[in-house]
Specification:
CATH class of the largest domain: Alpha Beta
Helix content: 25-40%
Order of helices and strands: EHEHEHEHEHEHEHEHEHEEHH
Strand order of the largest sheet: 3-2-1-4-5-10-11
Number of strands: 11
Shape: elongated
Bound molecules: 6-O-phosphono-beta-D-fructofuranose
Mean pLDDT: 96
Number of domains: 2
Length: 346
């Protein structure tokens, strides 16, 4: 008879929270496969972000459930913008206790929270109430503090760049100003990268204060230099009246001041949809496998991160409530300026 105490199989949870983005399924697969194959763990996926954790809604994720999802957009376990520590009604007071109870009733040894800034803030608060948490940064906006890169960003830049490429022909054929608005929340990463990759003439980002006078001057100068068209790439977060899109505002303002035809395109949710690029698949896979490793090693209260292309961890307490914005002296901004790209500043 074997009196040796049987070692209990570790059981971990994963959830995806905040806006969806390409690469979430690759991340779920990376965590799940590593946890199951390498460490012999059991994995459950909570439905719709923190909502599933509050209401104990989850699915068991076996290895076969993780096959065939690498290339699929969105998230197979769903997402939501639920913030369990935000008190709006009296019932909200119970949410952290419900989460704690569910976590223990389900016998979890760790929980991977995949999301952006808001998700990392909640992940930190869950860590503070005693849960074993690993954060994983994702968002098309690329604005999570503590990491050089979030997955979803490369795919969004790819989609936005292709859209810009396709605007060049109409700009050229009609001699128009074509304005394209891309996402990014309060950060200008997508506009900067897609703007540079797509050969934008004017790139407007929230981090660099623009003047309409300068934007119009640049368009007029291009006309004088026999370039009767311009491509303006604008981040949704630039300063503009909230009653209309940033692109609409620019289009109206430009046509008021310059004798040109302007047209706007708001790219919207196409930037968040569909299959991830190879780079996003790789990043999400690396983060996923590393998150499972962190759980196996008991390295909790951290967010997995990429610094100089090396995987590392950052304490969650350092991440929450901060934004990683484009610095005005970002090397790509400086190179753009050297090539004559206008950032709309004086
Ligand atoms: O954070 C990702 C993002 O797509 C932002 O770029 C955008 O401002 C926001 O989410 C839109 O959020 P929602 O899904 O709530 O409309």
């Amino acid at each position: 008879m074997n009196f040796m105490k049987q070692k209990r199989i570790k059981r971990i949870g994963i959830l995806t929270a905040g806006g969806d983005c390409p690469g979430l399924n690759a991340a779920i697969r990376g965590v799940g496969k590593t946890a199951i194959v390498q460490y012999g763990m059991e994995v459950i996926g909570f439905s719709s972000g923190y909502t599933g954790l509050i209401h104990k809604q989850y699915v068991e994720l076996k290895e076969k459930d993780l096959s065939g999802i690498l290339t699929v957009g969105g998230t197979i376990i769903g997402t939501s913008r639920e913030k369990p520590f935000k008190i709006v009604t009296e019932d909200d007071n119970d949410k952290p206790d419900l989460i704690k109870r569910n976590y223990h009733e389900l016998g979890l040894d760790g929980l991977v929270c995949v999301g952006g800034n808001g998700t990392m803030k909640t992940a930190h608060l869950l860590s503070n109430i005693g849960l074993n948490i690993i954060g994983m940064p994702k968002t098309i906006d690329n604005d999570v503090w503590g990491t050089d890169l979030t997955f979803g960003f490369d795919s969004a830049v790819f989609i936005a760049t292709e859209a810009i490429d396709r605007l060049h022909s109409t700009a050229n054929s009609h001699g128009r100003v074509m304005i394209i608005e891309v996402m990014g929340h309060n950060a200008g990463w997508i506009a900067l990268y897609a703007g540079m990759a797509g050969g934008g003439d004017i790139i407007l980002i929230p981090e660099i204060k623009y003047s309409m006078k300068k934007v119009c001057q640049t368009i007029e100068e291009r006309y004088k230099n026999n370039k009767p068209y311009s491509i303006v790439v604008v981040a949704e977060g630039i300063d503009h009246p909230k009653s209309m899109s940033a692109a609409r505002f620019l289009s109206e303002s430009i046509q008021e001041k310059v004798d040109v035809e302007a047209r706007e395109t708001v790219l919207g949710y196409t930037q968040r949809g569909g299959s991830p690029t190879p780079m996003d698949r790789i990043l999400a896979t690396r983060y996923g496998a590393y998150a499972a490793q962190c759980i196996a090693e008991g390295n909790f209260g951290k967010m997995v991160a990429l610094r100089n292309n090396e995987l590392t961890t950052v304490p969650l307490e350092e991440v929450g409530g901060k934004l990683r914005l484009v610095s005005p002296d970002n090397p790509l901004v400086l190179k753009g300026r050297m090539m004559g790209v206008s950032f709309g500043d004086e």
